Amino acid sequence: MKAVLYICHGSRIKKGRDEALAFIEQTIPFMDVPIQEACFLELAHPTIEQGITRCVERGATEIIVFPFLLLAAGHAKKDIPMELERARFKFPSVTFRYAKPLGVHEAMVDILVERMKETGQPILPSASVLIVGRGSSDPQILDDFARIRDLFRHKTKIRDVNIGYLAAASPSFKEELERLHRQHPVQLWVLPYLLFTGVLSKKMEKEITLLHSPESIILTKCLGYHSSIRKIMNDRIKEADSTGGHQYVSNHG
């Protein structure tokens, strides 16, 4: 029997964990798979091991593992595959298929624009924009954000679009925020490229508050759990399915 295991990132903040699980619950009816479970990569329960065990206990013989992550960095490339390697030996009769994360997608950039419009503020072509990523030491993340920036520029026609990272990559969010603020832009949009409310969201709010004139800065909501994301998830799961075409990883060869 087939199962899908959704691996969410995890957060120290309960609201972030609840947002993730609520979205998975809303997504389950749209997926034509009999067994579906959710777990967390870190900082919360159930763990990946517990999530896999639940799938097996419910009768799963094939598990499609979907890393509910924005981009393919260390967690998707190393941490989760290590967990799956352990699970493969624990459950040798179970086939594991590993889906891609959400990845760079035009629909994700559309959500950024939607979050801007939700503020009720006019979006000026002369505005400055700071897209904020979690950050990673993986160089692919920098390439991915360059593509996200290009898509955003194309959609909005805003030219001054910048990227800042909250950890493990440069330039840092704080450095870029301060640099752009010193330029006194007519508008400064700060767009969190994060799925959920969490510690990093609080960090952004704090840094903006510390500036002398934060009223000129418009901080949008996180990407959140949008219906467009559900469509991408469905596509990624079908890609990894043995009947749906591309197989990203299956039992590591």
Structure description:
This protein has 253 residues and is an alpha/beta fold. The chain has two domains: 2-103 and 226-250, Rossmann fold (3-Layer(aba) Sandwich), CATH 3.40.50; 106-219, 3-Layer(aba) Sandwich (Rossmann fold), CATH 3.40.50. Helices cover 43% and strands 18% of the residues. It is built from eight helices and nine strands. The strands form two sheets. The protein has a five-stranded mixed β-sheet with strand order 2-1-3-4-9, sandwiched between helices. Helix 4 crosses helix 5. The longest helix has 18 residues, at 139-156. The chain is elongated and about 60 Å long. It starts with a strand and ends with a strand. The model is unreliable at 244-253 (pLDDT under 50). InterPro entries: CbiX-like, Sirohydro_Cobaltochel/CbiX. This is Sirohydrochlorin chelatase. It comes from Bacillus lumedeiriae. Keywords: Lyase, Metal-binding.
